[in-house]
Amino acid sequence: MPAFRYESVGADGKTRRGVLEADSARAARGILRGQGQTPLSVEAAVGSEAPGTARRGGFGRRLAAREQALLTRQLASLLTAGLPLDEALSVLAEQSERDYVRELVAAIRAEVVGGQSLAGALQWHARDFPDIYRAIVSAGEHTGRLGLVLARLADYLEQRNALKQKIQLAFLYPGIVTVIAFGIVTFLLSYVVPQVVNVFVNTKQALPLLTVIMLALSGFVRSAWWALLGGTALLVFLVRRALRVPSIRHAWHARLLRLPLAGRLVRGYNTVRFASTLAILSAAGVPILRALQAAGDTLNNEVMKRHVDEAIVRVREGVALSRALGGTHVFPPVLVHLIRSGEATGDVTAMLDRAVAGESSELERRTMFLTSLLEPLLIVAMGGIVLVIVLSVMLPIIELNQMVQ
Predict the structure, then answer these.
(1) pTM of the entire predicted model
(2) Spatial distance between the Cα atoms of 47 and 2, rounded to a whole number of angstroms
(3) What is the CATH number of domain 65-129?
(4) Which terminus of the chain, N or C, has fewer Cβ atoms within 10 Å?
């Protein structure tokens, strides 16, 4: 049964907004009139698109990563407590704080009440619940352990969000320092340098070479700043267009993996995503080939993704998972060894969880090391640039002082 978002006015003159289930918009208006409400607007709630299609929406018309993890955790708790799925969704819809989340859950509940499975209902919201999410939910429904699978999925989402937040916060300080440094240098070049040096230009004094260069650079910044911004925007546009070409994107991703520090971060981040997804799908009872395909789709590095595709072919031919992944030479050896141990003991999921924990800690350590290395480098670079600007201003003063003496 479809869900409709409405706005109505009651007999007391108060405006009410909410979501209700009805066969059609006309039936929804009839329900509102039967409740003594005068409908002002009735329209289909979130989920009126075809399954699997992306939805167009304005600002805030999307489920945030934190909200997705919270909804998953709450739904898992309610199902584990013994509530039927439709009642659990009804509780989530009532306690949702944001209108969009309330409409989203109400629309999902309407599809479930209409006979759809939870995974089938989520297909109407492909942007909020990606393929990997729906595949895990579907596996939980088929195995009859939806509550446990959702609890594990919530753990995965929370760990992924926490790791992403730690990496973003680690690079926040260097980013702020870079922006402030750029602003200070721009101010010095566009205002301070011309104001001071023009005094010596009027005296017809021959200026030092460094001062002349700084004056030329200052004039360029003041008169052609628009060209600088336009050139930067054009460069970003051309780079993004170039990375859409498969051969160029593959070459760039291969180059990223070979970089001394950044390459390890890229490899570690993708390894955590791959192993985490593979662990949760394995625990949910998803066949290994399908789990490998879904885990490979979470990789954002084309080289690693291509090697996973090659490993899938080898596993399909009968090769063990550890040997197939070990032959790619793109994943850390510890991951391969732990998977081999899991194959020997019959508990690959536990070994994958251990690999994820270890690789996550290593990724955090490398991120902190890189940011701790960037901070002094940025300070030294900023100090060097300011020193050059100050020298360009002081050299004419020193020469003039020598001439007076």
Answers:
(1) 0.70
(2) 9
(3) 1.20.81.30
(4) C
